[in-house]
Design brief:
The protein is built from 14 helices and no strands. The chain has a single domain (2-259), classed as ABC transporter involved in vitamin B12 uptake, BtuC. α2 (8-33) packs parallel to α7, α2 (8-33) packs antiparallel against α10 and α3 runs parallel beside α5. The chain has 267 residues and is mainly alpha-helical. The model has no long low-confidence stretch (mean pLDDT 85).
Length: 267
């Protein structure tokens, strides 16, 4: 363990993993409770379009992916509120468009770039200080929005009643969409675009099986998200296997254990 903590790149990776584990699992409870699991996958693939545009422009991909993914998130909820289409349909449309744009941007790049594969599959050991600064900024914004947790939880359980109580539910939807979009982008280096949706959903789903209240679900999800990210990173270092995949597999193991415990309790 001392060997890991003495390596600068592992120090950065552990910090990034813990921060992203917190962010993804915190917003994941709203994603799971509202039945928006497909949103995580949609925004992850939207981020691919932004990353590809950044590579084409020879700019830092994540900084281009942030506004790109935010626009897609806003677009998804705008289409949902202005039409009778469901969440999955709106996400599917923007999912496809973003992926198509990403493919076009990479084609226009002409020359081969290995960076695209880094963002697709994750490379937490390549996390830079600049990446950590961005994730810290997202974490600070999240802490500042903690007072909204109660109303977001209220709308997650009973949207119609929240609207009857004159809560700005639609406005809150847009705020949550933007924050989830930024969280997705910040998680790219940790688990990669391919696995972000799982990172967003699995800790929250596990916590839901073991919790009786939304508050305890939120707390347990955060604990599982951080612990899974840090433990998965350590295991991947010693086993010499991909970090992102190891984190997801470990979190999936927690989920299946929770599912067994939940089944036994129900009996």
């Amino acid at each position: 363990m001392n060997e890991i903590l003495s390596l600068p790149f592992m120090q950065r990776a552990l910090i990034a993993g813990a921060l992203v584990g917190f962010l993804a699992s915190y917003y994941g409870v709203f994603v799971v409770q509202r039945g928006l699991s497909f949103l995580g996958s949609g925004l992850a693939h939207a981020a691919f379009g932004g990353v590809a545009l950044g590579l084409l422009l020879n700019q830092e991909p994540l900084w281009i992916a942030v506004p790109f993914t935010i626009l897609v998130a806003i677009g998804i909820f705008w289409v949902k509120t202005r039409t009778q289409l469901g969440n999955d349909t709106a996400v599917g449309i923007f999912f496809s468009v973003s992926m198509a744009l990403g493919i076009v941007f990479l084609f226009l790049k002409r020359e081969y770039t290995s960076d695209a594969f880094t963002y697709l599959f994750g490379s937490i050991l390549a996390v830079t200080t600049r990446d950590i600064r961005m994730t810290v900024a997202v974490a600070i914004i999240t802490f500042l929005t903690f007072p909204f947790w109660r109303r977001w939880a209220y709308a997650s359980f009973d949207r119609e009643l929240a609207e009857t109580d004159h809560l700005s539910v639609v406005k809150d939807d847009y705020i949550l969409a933007v924050l989830i979009a930024v969280t997705v982008v910040s998680a790219i280096k940790v688990v990669g675009i391919v696995l972000i949706a799982a990172f967003l959903v699995i800790p929250a789903a596990t916590a839901r099986l073991l919790s009786r209240t939304f508050r305890s679900m939120t707390i347990l999800s955060i604990i599982l998200g951080i612990f899974g990210a840090v433990s998965g990173l350590i295991f991947s270092y010693y086993l010499d296997v991909p970090s992102g995949a190891t984190i997801i597999l470990l979190q999936a193991a927690f989920f299946f254990v929770a599912m067994i415990v939940h089944s036994i309790q129900n009996r």
